[in-house]
Design brief:
This protein is mostly helical. It is built from 15 helices and no strands. Helices cover 64% and strands 0% of the residues.
Length: 383
């Protein structure tokens, strides 16, 4: 009964987040339809697979970080947890996505503290990679946006400092101790964090290319638009993550991307790119989540489960098989045991010596080569 109630609650939550994601498109459909009419169809068609590829790389970013914390998931299981939980960001509040990940990962016997830590650290890595990328590109191609968002220069070092493994382990264990939870079983490593940061840089690159294609569809200059789109998308997404309480950073993210693209497009067209880019990522989130709905993962066995008892081998020799018999040899071959050597036959008992006929009887002399009943034997018996 408890399992059915839990399944119903999950189903209800899934319906809520699906409705919230669809509502994000319907609510802005008027503006989106006008924006789509201005864009070339080929631009939208080319931008969609780039955003889809960015979300696939995002899955491997999250899965890599989970593995560094000791939770090794298959791609199929990780995809279910990651893509279903992404719908939580369309509900107001910034914690629903992480809480969804923790609940779904429990089906795979991953501790909640591990999943919540990875969820929070994913945001930190996204900020630690995205903000420096924006700082390195926007001052040269979008100075107005760099001036408007000057404060990111002060925020970026904070995220970068947390990414040191020792600092990160101390901070997480300290937070777990405050909520009376055990410390991490597997602290993060340099190798794991650097691999995750590299994948996250690829995510920003692919999202930036998606926005760049949209800019080209509105007549933007390719050379100037490329760094503005990459840095602008990274800035917009990072600022949206900091906007706690807004579903998927709606509004804040659009304004930041439009400000970064205002140097290569006029303001209305820059806002068109921001709206269409958000619509594309919403459709991608819905598509990837719907694909995972019917999949049911098989949880691994608990780590403290006793291994199955080994099957005792069959007796090497059948109980009724005599040593040295064919049955014993066949039974020994089947069990890889050498058959017992057959017992040697008992030595024949010596024949008793015949008693002499009388006290004066002379012993019978027999020639060594005489054969009984032969003439030599009979002649030797004559006195």
């Amino acid at each position: 009964m408890k399992g059915k109630i839990k399944s119903w609650v999950r189903g209800a939550v899934l319906v809520v987040v699906l409705v919230a994601a669809v509502a994000a498109i319907v609510r802005n459909w008027g503006e989106l339809s006008e924006a789509l009419r201005e864009l070339s169809p080929w631009a939208v068609a080319a931008a969609f697979p780039l955003s889809l590829g960015a979300m696939v790389v995002s899955l491997f970013t999250w899965r890599s970080l989970m593995a560094d914390f000791g939770a090794r998931l298959s791609v199929r299981d990780a995809a279910r947890v990651f893509y279903l939980s992404q719908l939580g960001k369309y509900i107001p509040g910034s914690v629903w996505s992480m809480l969804s990940q923790a609940e779904l990962a429990r089906d795979l016997r991953v501790p909640r503290r591990t999943t919540l830590t990875v969820g929070a650290l994913t945001i930190v890595i996204a900020q630690g990679v995205g903000l420096p990328l924006a700082i390195a590109t926007l001052p040269f191609v979008a100075p107005a946006a760099a001036d408007e968002y000057w404060w990111v220069v002060l925020v970026a070092p904070l995220f970068l400092g947390v990414l040191h493994p020792r600092v990160l382990t101390w901070a997480v264990n300290r937070a777990l101790r405050l909520v009376r939870r055990p410390p991490l079983d597997h602290p993060p490593s340099w190798r794991g964090l650097l691999r995750t940061a590299g994948l996250q840089a690829l995510v920003w690159l692919m999202f930036g290319l998606s926005a760049w294609v949209l800019v080209l569809g509105l007549g933007g200059a390719p050379g100037e638009a490329l760094p503005a789109a990459i840095g602008g998308y990274a800035l917009a997404h990072c600022v949206g993550l900091l906007a706690v309480g807004l579903p998927a950073g709606a509004g804040v993210r659009d304004l930041a991307l439009a400000a970064a693209l205002a140097s290569v497009l006029d303001a209305p067209k820059a806002f068109v790119v921001a709206l269409v880019a958000r619509m594309i990522i919403t459709v991608v989130d819905l598509l990837m989540a719907v694909i995972q709905i019917r999949y049911r993962p098989t949880p691994p066995p608990p780590p403290d489960a006793a291994p199955p008892a080994p099957v005792a081998p069959a007796s090497a020799v059948a109980p009724d098989a005599a040593p040295g018999s064919p049955a014993a040899a066949a039974s020994a071959v089947a069990s890889d045991v050498a058959p017992p050597a057959p017992a040697s036959p008992p030595a024949p008992a010596p024949a008793p010596a015949s008693a002499p006929a009388g006290p004066d009887a002379a012993p019978t002399a027999v020639t060594p080569d005489a054969v009984p009943s032969s003439p030599a034997s009979r002649s030797s018996q004559v006195p």
